[in-house]
């Protein structure tokens, strides 16, 4: 099985874990037509027959979570159905997490499914979907269950409103339809050239799934484990989104995205062309608006004060905890503390003082179309992780925060030769086999869950197809010499960065390293003498394949239940990584030049736990609750270089110049 830990060190093993087809079946039908009546007869019967408070012994918290939620339900305090849901709405999040707690504390599958069926009928649909996704990802009861693709569960969050309207028309006339979907905007808008990146449904899914796996609300006192290096993970995943977006911009002859700032105009407006299932259209934002205070959220002045406090902490090299003590951040662990503060998560040592820069900024930016609630508009796209990357301002916002992280990273001392070298190991060369060539293809997904329905009327097939970026298969070839006289463990770290900026000025080594895209990271055993490593693009530990369609998951689980057979979906257990189509940027017709880097570090020193190189028990949080790689994310490119000779004289790294081509090829839908 290949288990994904986002942007970290993983392993391919010979172990195969079968999914429980009954659990997969139940989760499928909990989410199928989630806005309509339950379609599975057995689970539909549970909606009214199940008694959530029937036996406290079936909850590992003694029933505290279910009593709390039932009291809210019985006193009619919960958000009604047929209403929008946003995780950034404090009350709505609290309600969703009450259901999450109930599911998480269910001690057996019958209690889990009974509660899911019961509250599916009675709670807001958006709250239900969020709670169920979070519970399936984190509950010990749902290991190896594959969640259906969100873009087929809640298609409104991923699909243009024009397409949704066509889908409704097809449903009303009972006419099968395959509807072409386009990106927002027009060719007169330069940002349209990179809409394929931010509006890619795989990218949207990657972003929301990361925030589900590493949620800002996670509280160790209520959970079974600690999310190791969560703050650093927050930095790294958004840093990689930012540098990848810049690489896509350079591919399309655009300048790198400029950072957003509270006292400057927001130059780019945005018309989302998306609509809520319930609640109207997502709000638009005109060009060149000035940030305004948002009623009930924050003042612009508050955001500036929060930023200054964080920058002061970086300058001083420590943060002040809630109890007044000082926490050093001028070391490799500091980025983890800083990430917890900037997001901010429950791991922040002092939320009252350092605020929640990231989370508040999302709401501030999302509400700029109606900052004072004059028009009673629903939340903007920035207030949903599913839709946030559709807005180009998302990347401006994260460039702003990325530069704060950069300020911290550059305050750390440069790596010494001793911290970088791998004694006796030399990387002789790195190259690419096969074309580095990208193309566009049409991808089809179902819209059956987008339209209203009744059990009396049969479904007709309604789907949409949208262009998306892909690349041809290639391999990275690395030649390594091990002069140690014995087999050693190594960690191979592969990066690439654009060689030139948009003015064709060559990036300095420091600029290139900060803008480097991580392509892969994996363990190797290096035999004495010459070693030839061939790493296929399809093997990257940082990417995931498309999850099977919702219909396919239902059909496979139903067939396994009926036939009493195992269900093998282990390849799709995590949707956490980047889409495997996005490993390399688009490039251009002339061939966009990248500097390709291979760095091999001491695997024994890198391993965060014992026997990592032979142990196969990986999960989403690393091995034994620890992140498996001791090194900081981005090592060794994450710090500035004082003397380039230290890098150039290292034997355990090598680089080459490669070109990524895009010749305008588009594989169209049949």
TrEMBL record:
Residues 1-18 form the signal peptide. The keyword Signal applies. The keyword GTP-binding does not apply. Keywords: Signal. GO terms for molecular function: oxidoreductase activity. Pfam families: Hemocyanin_C, Hemocyanin_M, Hemocyanin_N. SUPFAM superfamilies: Di-copper centre-containing domain (SSF48056), E set domains (SSF81296), Hemocyanin, N-terminal domain (SSF48050). Belongs to the tyrosinase family. Hemocyanin subfamily. This is Tyrosinase copper-binding domain-containing protein. The lineage of its organism: Eukaryota, Metazoa, Ecdysozoa, Arthropoda, Crustacea.
């Amino acid at each position: 099985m290949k288990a994904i830990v986002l942007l970290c060190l993983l392993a391919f093993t010979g172990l195969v874990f079968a999914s429980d087809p009954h659990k997969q079946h139940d989760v499928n039908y909990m989410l199928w037509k989630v806005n309509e009546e339950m379609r599975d007869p057995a689970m539909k019967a549970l909606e009214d027959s199940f008694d959530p408070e029937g036996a406290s012994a079936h909850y590992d918290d003694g029933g505290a979570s279910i009593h709390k939620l039932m009291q809210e339900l019985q006193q009619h305090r919960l958000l009604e159905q047929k209403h929008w849901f946003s995780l950034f709405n404090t009350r709505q999040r609290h309600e969703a997490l009450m259901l999450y707690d109930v599911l998480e504390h269910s001690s057996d599958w019958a209690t889990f499914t009974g509660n899911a069926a019961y509250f599916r009928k009675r709670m807001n649909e958006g709250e239900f979907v969020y709670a169920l996704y979070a519970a399936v990802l984190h509950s010990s009861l749902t290991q190896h269950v594959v969640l259906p693709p969100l873009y087929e569960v809640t298609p409104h969050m991923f699909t243009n409103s024009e397409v949704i309207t066509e889908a409704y028309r097809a449903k009303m006339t009972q006419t099968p339809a395959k509807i072409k979907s386009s990106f927002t905007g027009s060719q007169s808008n330069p940002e349209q050239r990179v809409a394929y990146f931010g509006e890619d449904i795989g990218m949207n899914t990657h972003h929301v799934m990361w925030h589900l796996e590493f949620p800002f609300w996670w509280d160790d006192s209520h959970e079974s484990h600690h999310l190791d290096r969560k703050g650093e993970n927050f930095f790294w995943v958004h840093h990689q989104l930012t540098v990848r977006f810049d690489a896509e911009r350079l591919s399309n002859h655009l300048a790198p995205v400029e950072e957003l700032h509270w006292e400057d105009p927001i130059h780019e407006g945005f018309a989302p062309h998306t609509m809520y299932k319930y609640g109207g259209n997502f709000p638009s934002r005109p060009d060149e608006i000035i940030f305004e205070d948002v009623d009930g959220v924050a003042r612009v002045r508050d955001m500036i004060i929060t930023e200054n406090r964080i920058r002061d902490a970086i300058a001083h090299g420590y943060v002040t905890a809630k109890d007044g003590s000082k926490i050093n951040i001028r070391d490799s662990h500091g980025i983890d503390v800083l990430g917890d503060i900037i997001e901010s998560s429950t791991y922040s040592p002092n939320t009252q003082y350092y605020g929640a820069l990231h989370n508040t900024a999302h709401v501030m930016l999302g509400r700029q179309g109606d900052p004072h609630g004059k028009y009673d508009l629903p939340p903007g796209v920035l207030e949903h992780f599913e839709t946030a990357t559709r807005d180009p301002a998302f990347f401006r916002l994260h460039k702003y925060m990325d530069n704060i992280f950069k300020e911290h990273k550059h305050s750390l001392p440069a790596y010494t030769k001793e911290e970088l070298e791998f004694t006796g190991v030399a990387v002789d060369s790195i190259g690419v086999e096969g074309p580095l060539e990208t193309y566009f293809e049409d991808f089809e997904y179902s819209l059956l869950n987008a339209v209203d329905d009744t059990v009396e009327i049969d479904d007709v097939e309604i789907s949409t197809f949208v262009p998306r970026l892909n690349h041809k298969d290639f391999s990275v070839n690395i030649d390594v010499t091990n002069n140690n006289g014995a087999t050693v463990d190594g960690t191979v770290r592969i990066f690439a960065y654009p060689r030139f900026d948009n003015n064709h000025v060559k990036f300095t080594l420091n600029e290139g390293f900060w803008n480097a895209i991580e392509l892969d990271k994996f363990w190797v055993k290096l035999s004495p003498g010459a070693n030839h490593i061939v790493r296929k693009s399809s093997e990257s530990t940082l990417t995931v394949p498309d999850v099977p369609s919702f219909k396919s998951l239902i059909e496979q689980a139903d067939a396994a239940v009926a036939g009493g057979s195992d269900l093998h979906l282990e390849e799709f257990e995590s949707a956490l990584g980047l889409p495997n189509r996005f490993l390399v940027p688009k490039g251009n017709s002339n061939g966009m030049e990248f500097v390709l880097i291979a760095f091999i570090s001491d695997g024994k020193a890198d391993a965060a736990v014992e026997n990592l190189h032979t142990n196969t028990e990986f999960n989403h949080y690393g091995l034994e609750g620890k992140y498996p790689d001791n090194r900081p994310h981005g090592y060794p490119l994450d710090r500035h270089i004082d003397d380039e000779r230290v890098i150039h004289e290292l034997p355990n790294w090598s680089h080459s110049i490669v070109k990524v081509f895009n010749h305008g090829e588009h594989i169209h839908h049949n």
